[in-house]
Each structure stands twice: as C-alpha cells, then as structure tokens.
Amino acid sequence: MPGTDPYEPTGPYYECISCCERTTASDHNGFCSSCGGRVRNLAVARE
C-alpha cells in the first residue's frame, strides 16, 4: 500500500541540472553560480 513520503524540507534547496551543484540560497536567480546552468527546486516532487 503506497504511503505518504514523510520528508519535509527544512530550507529551500536547489540543484543545478548541468553540474549537480547544490545550494540553499533563497535569493537564487534560476541559474547556477558555478556553471550558469538552470537550477531546480529539490522540494518539488519529480515523480
């Protein structure tokens, strides 16, 4: 029986789609500070 994932984020975590660098910056501009790639919010379900 499927259940609910108990994970609750403690802060805004973002990951770069290109280089996989993670950041907790809440004032990101949608792009990675290392490579310039797009970042995604890790708290959003991808399933």
Description:
0% of the residues lie in helices and 17% in strands. By secondary structure, it is mainly β. The chain has one domain. The model has no long low-confidence stretch (mean pLDDT 81).
Main attributes of the structure:
single chain; three-stranded antiparallel sheet; 3 strands; about 45 residues
Write the layout of secondary structure elements.
Elements: E1 14-16, E2 22-23, E3 39-41
Antiparallel strand pairs: 1-2, 1-3
In whole angstroms, how far apart are the ends?
17 Å
Helix content: under 10%
Number of strands: 3
Structural class, by secondary structure, is mainly beta
The main sheet comes to: 3 strands, antiparallel
Sequence of secondary-structure elements = EEE
Short description:
This protein has 47 residues and is mainly beta.
